[in-house]
Write a structure and sequence with these properties.
The protein is mainly alpha-helical. 71% of the residues lie in helices and 0% in strands. It contains one helix and no strands. The longest helix is centred in the middle third of the chain and has 32 residues.
């Protein structure tokens, strides 16, 4: 029984780790999205 609980605890901890990685990736995408754009700008548009 203890082995099962230990296994579940590890799986739950792994899920939380994945959620933290997902949140970090999401915040990095937001930083990238809001960066200043560079390159040619067509004055006729």
């Amino acid at each position: 029984m203890e082995g099962k609980l230990d296994s579940h605890d590890k799986k739950i901890a792994l899920i939380f780790e994945y959620l933290q990685q997902f949140e970090k990736a999401k915040s990095e995408r937001e930083k990238y999205k809001n960066r200043p754009k560079i390159g040619f700008k067509n004055p006729n548009l």
